[in-house]
Specification:
This protein has 375 residues and is an alpha+beta fold. The protein is built from 11 helices and 15 strands. The N and C termini lie far apart (44 Å).
Length: 375
């Protein structure tokens, strides 16, 4: 089956079909209607257009699939606030997961189940609404605080991914209330309050895991910014030819992900793609590049991806702790308290904006942005 899929990819790659293939024209033909991948599926498309077909190596067939027994750690936060013995155990689990995996799931995190379910429903409402309403938000202007499009790196990537997005920068300077899409406005603002509490707790635990005072990461404004990304993965007629999201690392400090029950998220662990399956009531946490940078490589930002599927739509809501492209002169480098003669700084200082700009210009090309900032 895998061999057949690889042969089909090879056969239909643009370079194999038409030597003078005008990719830019096809990208514009997809982008200009402003209806995204959902528009293709709603129109009844039966084959994946060639702008979405990935080169065989982009599927990373050199990496194995992890054993079904290999599981991303699940950390139970029950008792973290009022049981010192339990908190020490949780900090140890968070440290081990952040150093070894760069990924973990948390349960008993305090976000009510009904709010999580309504957030998923709000995302569906946004993407299911009249295309004409969504077109008003469809843009590639990264300075805007509310952005709807398909593939932020559409014109930089080697192949497009099978997904649409809606991005909203909610902190520290949120957009006017009326600019947040009405279909999901109220639940986004409520979920923002909940996920901010989770993030602040996680930054405390991560600070302690680094041997710092609990408030350290908060005090250096790691939690100052929060952006929310609604991901919509329509059903794909030929999922073996494309990706839901290409492999990448997150450029933020920390990501808190809410996913529905369909699944498809994978993290790279010791050269094996490991499923990050939906766990009832759980949130998925992953370390971002900026946290790896300021921890001087103690914590890992790891590659992850989302598979395309015939089943869908799949929904996920990612909350990123970042100020993104907002102007700021604040610089981040390896935390001085972690440095020593045996552990010198490995990265140069950068602003969040500069790191994000480089990441966005590079796009999801399967490489990390971190080496660009390494000393």
């Amino acid at each position: 089956m895998a061999v057949d899929a690889a042969l089909e990819v090879e056969r239909r790659l643009p370079s194999k079909v038409e030597p003078d293939y005008d990719r830019l024209s096809e990208l514009k033909a997809f982008d200009e209607p402003k209806t995204g991948v959902k528009g293709l599926v709603d129109a009844g498309i039966g084959k994946v257009p060639r702008i979405f077909i990935h080169e065989p190596e982009s599927f990373d067939r050199k990496y194995g699939r992890g054993s079904p027994d290999l599981m991303v750690p699940v950390v139970d936060l029950e008792g973290v606030a009022d049981d010192l013995v339990r908190r020490k155990l949780i900090v140890d689990q968070v440290r081990n997961a952040s150093e070894e995996w760069g990924f973990f799931q948390v349960i008993n995190h305090g976000v009510p189940e009904e709010i999580m379910q309504e957030m998923i429903a709000g995302a569906i409402r946004f993407f299911d609404q009249d295309p004409e309403i969504k077109k008003a938000l469809y843009t590639r202007d990264t300075t805007k605080k509310v952005v709807h499009n398909s593939n932020f790196d559409l014109y930089q990537s080697l192949a497009a991914d099978w997904r649409d997005n809606m991005y909203c920068l909610l902190a520290p300077s949120p957009p006017p209330y009326e600019e947040i899409p009405a279909a999901c406005r109220d639940i986004m603002l409520e979920y923002q309050k909940q996920v901010t509490k989770v993030g602040l707790l996680l930054f405390e635990l991560l600070s302690e895991a680094l041997g710092l005072k609990p408030s350290h990461l908060k005090d250096i404004d790691s939690a100052e910014g929060l952006a929310m990304l609604l991901n919509y993965y329509p059903p794909c007629p030929e999922p073996e030819l494309t990706m839901g999201t290409s492999k990448h690392q997150d450029d933020y400090f920390l990501t808190v992900l809410l996913q529905d029950q369909i699944g498809g998220l994978q993290a790279l662990y010791k050269d094996q793609w490991v499923d990050v399956p939906p766990v009832a009531g759980a949130l998925v946490i992953n370390i971002g590049d900026l946290l790896q940078l300021i921890s001087n490589d103690q914590f890992k930002s790891v590659e992850h991806r989302a598979l395309a599927s015939r089943v869908g739509p799949r929904i996920s809501v990612a909350s990123f702790f970042t100020t993104y492209m907002q102007p700021s002169s604040k610089v981040y480098g390896p935390i001085k308290e972690l440095l020593s003669e045996n552990n010198p700084p490995k990265y140069r200082e950068t602003t969040v904006r500069d790191y994000t700009y480089y990441f966005n210009m590079k796009g999801l090309d399967g490489t990390s942005a971190l080496p660009h900032f390494r000393l």
